[in-house]
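Sequence and structure are no longer studied apart. As an example, we show below a sequence and the tokens encoding its fold:
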Amino acid sequence: DIGSNVASIGEYAFKNCSSLNGSLNFTNSDLSNLTRIEKGTFLNCSSLGSNDEQGITSLPRKVTLIDDEAFAGCTNITGNISLSEGLEMIGASAFNGCGGCHTEGTTHTKATLTFPASLKFINDHAFADTEFSTIIFNGETAPKMGYQWNPKLCEDGRIIIPANSKDSYFESNVNINIDDVGTKDLTKMTLDDSKLFDFLSN
């Protein structure tokens, strides 16, 4: 757990801290002053997520920014990543190399990446070298997306967007890399030929 009196987490605060493990829990209600997770805060914390809970469960509601490389290289984060409402920007390479879907032996773990409605921008390479079985966008307007921001989508994976927001997402620069299929560019697809999408109820 992150301590109840923490108002900020500095740049590179836990960089290369290989002994830091377990699932990140930001649910302490006293973290009311935390608004940013700074650049490289958990960079290369390679053991983070190495217990039974291997994801990021939530963020304090006032966190508006996850800065560049904040969780990059956290290769043992192989569970769900759920980003809380209030988050507006994800920095470059913020989650680069986090596992998402994970195969160990014959076991294939499916993971979900959830974006809040408040999200406005996903920067370059934010989710490079990650893979998820489900990607959920809650915003009625698609966030702006940087160069090669995208994760891979596992085979038979789904992208879920609000039902009344189809035009926004199909007109935006949303590129999703589909395993064994190639890159799917929403700007070149129609609802009829895309079998990747489900829609949230209005």
About this structure: The chain is about 5% helix and 25% strand.
